[in-house]
Design a protein that fits this description.
By secondary structure, the protein is α+β, with helices and mostly antiparallel strands. The chain has eight helices and four strands; from the N terminus they run H-H-E-H-H-H-E-H-H-E-H-E. The structure holds flavin mononucleotide.
């Protein structure tokens, strides 16, 4: 698959089939993740691949609880597309073949200060993983709801104090009635300028 096709069709997938994901495929995804740019090439990342059903169930319970609390806090906006499937994602987490927790060291990757270089040292890896998954026909979605239970998640998985979880990424083949599709984003001219802020791109 052309990289441009993977990019333009890698939309969030939140409903998965129970088709297994092979160990070899998981390795391919993790090779892609760990090829990403990162501050000073210090590779202060760790990735936890969760396949154990009971562990996934507990992650799903926390996800569902966080989603339920978030929905009640933000009201109607919660029923926009990105949130609508949150409940089912939590409920179904134990049945999703693979859950990846992307983690980043707590302090030592601050090289320049300024904008969040810790996030910038883990999210390119997450995107590499997701694009590679897309190219292999696998669905993913980057999620962060679980961070509302960061302490509990870290304790469950034995994640040491020197690391935070940055994203929880379900990975699996899409459910039969779910397809990849063109991502929906605003027009380029609203957000891309040339030479000076506000000037349209040629
Ligand atoms: C920082 C971040 C946090 C996100 N957290 C969640 C989440 O907790 N649950 C979820 O279902 N999607 C989450 N998403 C996915 C977004 O909802 C999704 O990327 C966005 O709505 C665009 O959807 P699309 O890729 O299908 O076009 C998150 C995305 C980002 C970048």
């Amino acid at each position: 698959m052309e990289i441009s096709e993977a990019i333009s069709t890698q939309r969030a997938i939140r409903h998965f089939s129970d088709r297994p994901v092979s160990d070899e495929t998981v390795r391919t995804l993790m090779e892609a993740a760990t090829s990403a740019p990162n501050a000073g090439n210090r590779q202060q990342w760790r990735f936890l691949v969760v396949r154990d059903k009971e562990t996934k169930r507990r992650l799903g319970d926390w996800y569902l609880q966080a989603w339920t609390e978030t929905v009640s806090r933000i009201g109607d906006e919660a029923y926009t597309q990105p949130y609508r499937s949150g409940g089912v994602l939590g409920e179904q987490m134990e049945n999703i073949p693979v859950i990846v927790l992307a983690c980043i060291a707590t302090g030592s990757s601050h090289i320049t200060g300024g904008l969040d270089t810790r996030g910038a040292s883990i999210y390119p890896a997450v995107q590499n993983l997701m694009l590679t998954a897309r190219s292999l026909g696998l669905g993913t979605v980057i999620t962060t709801m679980h961070t509302q239970f960061e302490t509990e998640v870290k304790q469950l998985l034995g994640i040491p104090d020197q690391f935070d979880t940055a994203a929880l990424i379900p990975v699996g083949y899409p459910a039969p009635d779910v397809s990849f599709g063109d991502v929906s984003r605003g027009p380029l001219d609203d957000v891309v300028y040339q030479d000076r802020w506000g000037n349209p791109l040629d």
